[in-house]
Amino acid sequence: MNACLIRDxxxxxxxxxxxxxxxxxxxxxxxxxxxxxxxxxxxxxxIAEREAMGDLYEEIRRLPLESSVTVTxxxxxxPRSPGGYExxxxxxxxLQKSEEFPIGKKEHGPDFLLGIRHLWLRxxxxxxxxxxxxxxxxxxxxxxxxxxFTLIDTPIFTTTVGEDSSNLFSxxxxxxxxxxxxxxxxxxxxxxxxxxxKVYCLGPTFRAERSKTRxxxxxxxxxxxxxxxxxxxDNLELQENFVSFIVQNTVRECADELRKLERDxxxxxxxxxxxxxxxxxxxxxxxxxxxxxxxxGSDLGGDDETIITNLYDKPVFIECYPKKVKxxxxxxxxxxxELVMCADLLAPxxxxxxxxxxxxxxxxxxxLKAILxxxxxxxxxxxxxxxxxxxxxxxxxxxxxxxxxxSWICGLKHVRETIPFPRMLYRAYP
Length: 430
Ligand code: 4AD
Ligand code: MG
Fold this sequence. Notes:
CATH class of the largest domain: Alpha Beta
Helix content: 25-40%
Number of helices: 14
Order of helices and strands: EEEHHEEHHHEEEEHEEHHHEHHEEEHHEH
Radius of gyration: 26 Å
Bound molecules: 4-amino-1,4-dioxobutan-2-aminium adenosine-5'-monophosphate, magnesium ion
CATH superfamily of the largest domain: Bira Bifunctional Protein, Domain 2
């Protein structure tokens, strides 16, 4: 029999339909049971009365949560019901009577829940987050598609260090020795701009960072754009349009989910170009005025970013960091060689860095020096130097972390809930 989706009840008011799903909640008395059924498309209340159910009623009345069932009944309009409809059951089949579900009404700690992530993914909050993630990624792709970018799928096994050698996962690769799990697709995107102009990648990214913070995963998804004939300023303009597009569309489409997550969306509605721009020099001054003892020349830490973003009502770019705290490929500042033409984009409300981007170094001599200064092996960069030999042009790009952006949009304290199966310093199961 064809099952009806709860989402489609609106088309079946008054009809008798069959739904299949799981018992998400249940309230029973001697005469009537109210079952909340979840079917993957939505949830509804099914009303099962002893009179209609007969002998089965005693079993329904005690049906454990998460049991799988099919329910046949009449779709009845009920404005007080969450979806506007309820199902008056005339028949019910138990597909599998669940064992006692480990997640109940009481508060559970994050370690317990992460250990049963495969079951936790069924809770309403996790379902809402996964739906927002789906919309976010869809609008990310949509932005690039609308703006003339071509998707380039970059490799996961790499022999060229993409960012820095301090946080690589290495893998034995047959007779070729070690390869690394990719830290970025950027270097390969740079190769692709010569044929395609504007390109992007979206895929898993690996960082063996021993950081146990609310912003770090060892495996996360990054979307990166790379554009020929783009200088630093063009890069920032594209990024602010990109971030505004994905935030506005996701917030509009996911109003119900964000309400479920109790996210106040007013601050997100203000995410419109232009974003604030603050130089690294100014950022250090601001931080020192606000009680930080950061010295010029250090990278900004998570706490520093929180201080800065709390001062602004929109995302803020921090531009032109010292060369020594940033990756080797960033273009040296034309007047101040100790700086690079880069920007990090910090999300407001204390969220901090969601984008790292820069114009790329196109002078082979400066690039070679930067590779050596970073303790990297120039032999492995032959192909990357070729890109500076055959029709080199100014180019720029950026990378946005999907999980950090999602935790900002959803108003979550930690990135661990933004990815179906988080990989962290102390967690690789389930
Ligand atoms: O600033 P990052 O390291 O920049 C790059 O990888 C460049 N190659 C991007 C480019 O120019 N094409 O990383 C970019 C973003 C960060 O701003 C952050 O949002 C996210 O990736 N990110 C992480 N997210 C979760 N866990 C981690 N350990 C992350 N490391 C970076
Ligand atoms: Mg960064």
